[in-house]
Amino acid sequence: MQIVSVLKSEAEIKILDQLGVDVFLVQTEEFTRNQIAGFTIDEIQNISKVVHSFNKQIYISINIMIHEDIIESLDLFLSKCESMNIDGFVIFDFSVFPLLQKHHLESLCIYQPGSMNTNICDPWFFLKLGIKGVTISREITLEELIEISGTFEKIQYSFVGHGYLEMFYSRRPLLTNYYKYNQISPSPINNDKGYFLKEELRKEEEYPIIEDKFGTTIFRSKKLSSYQELGVISPYLTDFFMERVFMDDNEYYLAIEAYIKTEKQTEFFQLFGEKYDSGFFYRKTGRSKEDYL
């Protein structure tokens, strides 16, 4: 199983390599929301060369909703990627797939829609399309993850196993609309990571929220850790994605190290444990209003 880490800078490649990262997930200026660091196509080309000099892999994150006004620029971007040694394209919207096909890159496609790959039929369907892999839904139990990923061996399975998981994504600028409705003039909020949402039925919880030029994303109130489950799920997964949003470098580096060196897990939980839980590994997502009354 490969550890997939979000890359913050070219200079960080050596640091993450020493920690044991196998794959570097690179965000783009034009096609990645909730950016830690957005890179240009020229920067990505150079990063690709450096990453491969360490005998590691590079994935490109394309996690926005695709609309007609984006297609031309995305098509141009992918055409430039044809001559680059990219190992994978992690896509959120399957509208990217026909463009990958156009540029003969479909075999590098990793479909990561968030909450949609939830059953054993999904891998079978995408296997027929010839894509590289699928990321299992973030909202299924440990038992279901094993059942799905143990179905077909000819497609690669992955899972987002660490960090804040998205609950909701909309192309609408929800924070901006909120301020407009309440006739408030806020400071610029593009990709600002200081906002939190509270709801009436769960007032004790705060949900991080980000608005950028691609829309608005709301996250779970706690981050996911998979240290206890790693030994069970690792035989079934090719890639283990580690989210980085709302996380400083020290926490992120120690989190990575603790997946490689189990003796580091105690230190990690002592420092950051109260901010984490087991996500949906042991509970289904079905809830009714009565559960909170």
**Class based on secondary structure composition and strand pairing:** alpha/beta
User: The CATH topology of the largest domain, please?
Assistant: TIM Barrel
User: Domains counted in the coordinates: how many?
Assistant: 2
CATH homologous superfamily placement of the largest domain: Aldolase class I
Query: How many whole angstroms does the radius of gyration measure?
Result: 19 Å
CATH architecture of the largest domain: Alpha-Beta Barrel
What are the segments in which pLDDT stays under 50 over at least 5 consecutive residues? none
Order of strands across the widest beta sheet? 1-2-4-5-6-7-8-14
Arithmetic mean of pLDDT: 93
The helix content, as a percent range, equals: 25-40%
Biggest β-sheet: count, sense, barrel? 8 strands, parallel, barrel
- The SSE order reads EHEEHEHEHEHEHEEHEEEEHEHHE
Shape field: globular
Total of DSSP H or I helical runs spanning 4+ residues:
10
